[in-house]
Amino acid sequence: MTDRFTREQIKELNELQRKYFNENVDIFEPPLPKGVPARLKATVQASGLRPGEKVLDVGTGTGILIPYILKYRPSEIHACDIAEQMLERVKQKFPRVITHLGDVSGLPLPDDSLDVAFINGCFSNILDKSKSLDNLHRLLRPQGRLVISHPLGRNFIVELKQHTPFHLDLLPDEADAKELLERYDFEILEFRDEFAFYLVVAKIRKSNKETAAPSPRQFGDWVRIQ
Ligand SMILES: C[S@@+](CC[C@H](N)C(=O)[O-])C[C@H]1O[C@@H](n2cnc3c(N)ncnc32)[C@H](O)[C@@H]1O
User: Fold this and answer.
1) Residue nearest to atom 23 of ligand 1 (CA)
2) Which of 69, 70, 95, 180 is the most buried (most CB within 10 A)?
3) What is the dihedral of CA 40, 83, 212, 144, to 10 degrees?
4) Which of 90, 125, 221 to mutate to test the pocket of ligand 1 (most atoms within 8 A of CB)?
5) CATH class for domain 7-224?
6) Which residues pair with 1 in a beta bridge?
7) pLDDT tens sequence across 80-99
8) What is the 3-state secondary structure (H, E, C) of 113-179?
């Protein structure tokens, strides 16, 4: 999974996604399909989020997860996305959310600055899983949680792949998720693979965390827009 795409390919494929999501913001706005609100609620609940904690919503889109996160009164919510029109919508709806434009693989927040990172409906879209999981490991404090979820389930991605104009990965089954996440020092606490609900809750172990400062080149493509 590490070197499936070259840097140039990732740039090109992400550009296709960025264009698609910028042009289709409204499709991702509520009303949400039946059952999805309950699954989003369950997703946030499963993270064990506590008041005052700091949260990141990866590939936030129009921010459909944010109302559920807000119920837990976190001290900070960060939202990142590669599509600027998605973030414009998030800023209109949730002015206190801190938005970051760019790929999560290079999100330049400080080490140990987050308690929980959610990747809802976006894990299939992330092209550089290796760099992204490495970066999330760096951003999460010891014992921080990573939640990978999809409120329509794994089979939905199989269907969606036939129609999307950009690359999508299938969501990993339990064995693959365990193998992948353990490689980046995450331990799975909960795994649910139901007809229309996919949920992985993992805890960071930080047993051999590297604290070296990120190189400027790694974060070169980043723009902080709020
Ligand atoms: C299918 S939408 C899901 C949005 C939202 N999380 C939801 O559940 O409705 C995926 C979003 O992830 C963003 N995205 C894709 N790859 C990304 C990456 N590597 N880093 C950050 N955002 C990314 C896309 O621009 C898009 O807005």
Assistant:
1) 59
2) 69
3) -10
4) 125
5) alpha beta
6) none
7) 999 999 999 999 999 999 99
8) CEEEEEEECCHHHCCCHHHHHHHHHHHEEEEEEEEEEECCCHHHHHHHCCCCCCCCCCCCCHHHHHH
